[in-house]
Amino acid sequence: MPAVTADTVHLPRLAEPGLGDVDRPVRRITTAPGGYEGEGFPVRRAFAGVRLADLDPFIHMDEMGAVDYGPGEPKGTPWHPHRGFETVTYMIDGTFQHQDSHGGGGLIADGATQWMTAGAGILHIETPPAELVESGGLFHGVQLWVNLPAKDKFAAPRYQSIEGPQVALAASPDGGALVRVIAGDVGTRQGPGSTHTPISVVHVTVSPGATVHVPWNPEFNALAYVLGGRGAVGPQRTAIEAGQLAVFGAGDLVTVGAAERQDSVSPRLEVLLLGGRPIREHVEMHGPFVMNTRAELVQAVEDYQAGRLGVIPAGALMPHRV
To answer: For the chain, how are helix, strand and coil distributed in percent, rounded to 5?
Structure first.
């Protein structure tokens, strides 16, 4: 799991918890079921069984892989539409190509993040590059859907490419944890992601036996999804492992600790921390559309069928076949 690595000895350190800081309690642990997406690549449905009210402002998240593909096996998604939200694709291992109908595109690889605001409507494709399809290889990433408030549902589409070296890095006070801030603030560190809805997206790696207290905006909700390894979260040291999600209650910080013994597949605890200011608006969803009313969903489908969400560009990227 390469993502972005660094020597924690020389990084800025998170502050120790203050006397009045409240460690967020764990309200629930859920286990993500498996499924398939796009052309048939395996995913874990990270938010399955969790109320939208607990996820708000997030809507959906898939962990893609981790899977070690053989030659000819890598798969992606064909061209498809979105409206009403933002998609965040974070690649930990492997490579995805992206192209959209508004001119955005490029490679997403090894710690990079693609942040696409669908807004009023967009078409896009995400697919492994030809060389990865030909050779096979390790593939692991996350796609997160971030809701937009009603006032921004029809915002102009936007694309952000956040390369791995752009993320803000920090270490726990003892150097036992590496904190990568993709969006939002953690202590004095600010991530490069620009968001309509105030949120934080943070990838934390914790060495065996170490613990980190991550300061967290008390106005935000807090979720922790385990990408690899095992450990414990919250003040009661609630056990958690790969493929599980913790939903936290109120407080000022999130505590994550790694078990003393890990395994060879994931020698450290890898956790994705998510939080944001709840939008608290009614949500209506249908496939790739996230709106506020059923009438808006009907309009989204009609607009897509009429070509008003965009058109596939000439000479567009297409899935590679062997």
So the answer is: 10, 45, 45
CA distance 150 to 217: 23
User: Residue with structure tokens 């937009």?
Assistant: 148
* Tens-place pLDDT, residues 193-230: 999 889 999 999 999 999 999 999 999 999 999 999 99
E strands present in 101-198: 105-109, 113-117, 122-127, 137-147, 158-162, 168-171, 177-183, 185-186, 189-190
Helix (H) or strand (E) holding 14: none
Cβ atoms of residues 246 and 233 within 8 Å: yes
Gap between the Cα atoms of 44 and 307, Å rounded? 32
Domains, the chain, ordered by start:
10-305 (2.60.120.10)
pLDDT at residue 179 in the model: 97
The average pLDDT across 58-79 equals 88
Task: Report the first-to-last Cα separation within the chain, whole angstroms.
Answer: 27
What does 129-154 look like in DSSP terms, one character per residue?
A: -HHHHHH-EEEEEEEEEEE--GGGTT
pTM of the model: 0.95
Backbone angles phi, psi at 54, to 5 degrees: -80, -25
Give the per-residue pLDDT at 255: 98
Query: pLDDT at position 3, please?
Result: 74
Question: How far is Cα 23 from Cα 211, in angstroms, rounded to an integer?
Answer: 13
Do residues 166 and 111 touch, judged by C-beta distance below 8 A? no
SS3 303: helix
Render pLDDT for 132-155 as a digit per residue (tens, 0 to 9). 888 888 889 999 999 999 999 999
Tokens of 244: 């599980």
